[in-house]
Amino acid sequence: MKKIFLPIIILFAAIIAPGANTFVPHAFSEETNAIEIVSYFDEEKGLVSNRIYALSPEAPGKGWGVFIASEAGLHIYIDDVFLSVFQGRATTRLATEYGEMKETLWAYATGNKRKGDFLYRIISESGLWTAERTAPPTGAVVCLSASHKTLYIGTDHSLLYIEEMELDGKIKYKEILTDVSITAALALGDGTLALGLMDKESKKMGLKIIGGEVSGHTGWVEGLSGYEVTALHKIVHDKFDLIDGGLLVGTKSSGLFLLDQKGVRKIPASVKLRNVNDILFDNGNLYAATNGGLFIGKISTLATLTRYKVTDKDTKATALAPGPGSLVWVGTKSGGLYLISYDGKK
Hints:
- The protein is mainly β.
- The chain is built from one helix and 31 strands.
- A five-stranded antiparallel sheet has the order 1-12-11-10-9, with no helix packed on it. A five-stranded antiparallel sheet has the order 2-8-7-6-5.
């Protein structure tokens, strides 16, 4: 398939974010005042679209840069400006892989009635970003995950992959699983894949581990059978960890779970937690973006997660990404983009 090379010209793509440095922080919470809004952006403050589908940090570690996949396309916020990567197509899925010298971001963008859909690869080398695009596989793309220069693509009828080097020639998507509906996918770096999956023949649904194991679990995970998995997040150890790693599993209607060597454990919440869109474990805190709002808590003790309304305008949180230091980016369905601080105090 024909590939189109798209250099990103920063000078002409920059959109100054008015009021970015003058925003007055304030605290707001449904049940506590432990959350503070450090910065807020909407369409009046430079954000191209208030409808955010996914977020990804611009570089490893804690920095200000964040990629924003929205109804208006793909943009990056860095150094107090919004830069356009591409516009005109709703960007609904992101996957990032970090290397020593290169950062690769994959993005899936949809056209009108799936006409003009594209799969983008955006590469950063020596501070220069370039983008290229190609036609996506057939079927509705539900999720992306990247590892070891391989992109895994979950659709409504199969699990596929392509290797990064294959973009230099004609694209051929290779099948891993067929006759399945993939609802979430996470590549764990050693050939292991965690999948939210529904087998169309057997009608079995839940979490399935293929190509390896997660905390001693492989194949269909007992304890999550019958659940529609919507989000996955690997727990990476840091100085705050008091647990032995594992996998965080979000579901459509049954809440949030921890899968580790002790098995499957449900994480309690202050109110019913459903429709988990994204999960982040950062600086010892667990964040869950859901249709019912933002939930935050400590995972080390499996303490009850508390629900927060980031704004009165929109309770639906759609995306999360680590920010500078201990701050966290929160995207919403129609209320814009927030940078928050959580001190854990009630």
